[in-house]
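Lay summary

Proteins are chains of building blocks that fold into shapes. Our project writes down both the chain and a compact code for its shape. Here are two examples, one after the other.
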Amino acid sequence: MADTIAHYVSPAGLRMSVAYTTELVRQAQQLHQLSPVAAAALGRTMTGALLLANDFKNKEGVSIRIAGDGPLGSIHADAYESGKVRGYVDCPHVELPLKGPHKLDVGSAVGRGMLYVTRYSLLRHPYQSAIALTSGEIAEDLTYYLTVSEQIPSAVSLGVLVNPDTSVAAAGGVMVQALPDAEEHALSAMEANLQELGPISHAIQTQPSADILATLSRNLSFRRLSENTVKWECTCGKERFERALLQLARDDKEELLHDENGVEMSCHYCNAVYRLTPGELQELFGLKG
């Protein structure tokens, strides 16, 4: 099944987004050779970024950086209204004992620290909010961020289920937010529905999407606003690399020109490597070597 994200609204004052991200998390795991706990942490963060990038009218993008003091280091994820998402973790090979039966200890892998959320849109300059991590489990941290920093009462459920052979079995997430006119019965019903659904990754592995939606909308009515495919795709490229080099000071440019090996830069998100020879640098900078 293709990865998708769907957005819904209820006349009772709720909006809901449901993301299925199994394939893109698998791609990230294979690209970065992620350990199970690293795959769970990065998968949750990328899915969370997709859920937060829900202002499709204004073509909003979201970047999340989780700077914890745990062995994973920082986790980075970018999501765009086009459905593209990318991410990486500083230390992708971390191994930790299980927290419980079949439960990865993401909280200990992340540790304590800060959550940074940067939003981009066509209507305003990028702006960043920051908040201290509450648990390192990521879903709880994003829930707290939305409620405190953006003042939107929210519930976020994120999950990545990893097979015994360390491959990704299922991944996805749900975000529910209360609109200003939310009715009390709707809040109570949604709380019960989320509890009945249980871990979202297990639900995705064992149930068709129609059954998941039926559980989430029990005693509620939702109208679907949109449904789009999502995928892993990096936004790097040689042109972006060149634009970054053009921002360097003149002295730095001239120093690069005198390096007989040219310059090389790699992308943390996708591991692509870009190289420019001294001749290419001279043409780019318009300077003499």
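And here is the second example, written the same way.
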Amino acid sequence: MPAPDSPTILTVRNLNVNFARSTLKAVDGVSFTLGAERLGIVGESGSGKSTLGRAIMKLLPNSAKIEAEALEFAGTSLVKASEKQMRTLRGNEMALIMQDPRYSLNPVLSIGKQVAEAAKLHLGLGKAAAYKAAAGMLERVRIADVERTMRLYPHQISGGMGQRVMIAMMLLAKPRLVIADEPTSALDVSVRGDVLKLLDELVTENNSGLILISHDIRMVAAFCQRILVMYKGRVVENLVKLEDAQHPYTRGLVAAMPNPRRPVRRLQVLDRASIDAAEARS
């Protein structure tokens, strides 16, 4: 649940996602609410985390069927919203920071033009003001030599820098809902803290809600106020503190992560039999 006195930004109730020619649900009966807070969603690859985020943004392919008792953003039904309405919401009110900038940035436009285009589109700025806003945002995500970087093209920058450019583009309009899908996966350790701090500043300054999707359960636990744990498309646990985890899947994820303070010769693996048995009882 959202923090006390925090207005509900996003309501998800019994959300299901099916893909054509598949009998399995990619997202299976997921329910949660989000206020002005940081919510983490964790799970292994294929658990449905990214599909859930894209379903909220309605960015799944036509082969996907989205059904829900409620999927509402600030009182607007996203299930019933037309594509025209969604285009108005995306970028202005809702933003998705994708995992891999190589497939998100336009290869034939310079970095400066792409970030400035976001400022023009979502903030209604003129050319000069848009470039100034773009440069300011790139500075906030710790890009050195901003003027030079703005003249470069996506293939001329590193993956980590590309991811910071994506974050800058998505945060320009100060959206009320930010879905960050592995936003720090391509960044080195020294920069990750800065990026997470920037996301935290956005949530605080704009009274926004942040959904952080990640494999790194310890990072999510340290940064987020609540954690949803997903397994086979379902939410198996809703936690405030990671140490309160009871489900064998959550405990298995924690045990499988390396701990530099307690090195072991071999990491643990998930006990699928125990996990599936627990799911059968639920």
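What can we say about the second shape? The first strand starts at residue 10 and ends at 19.
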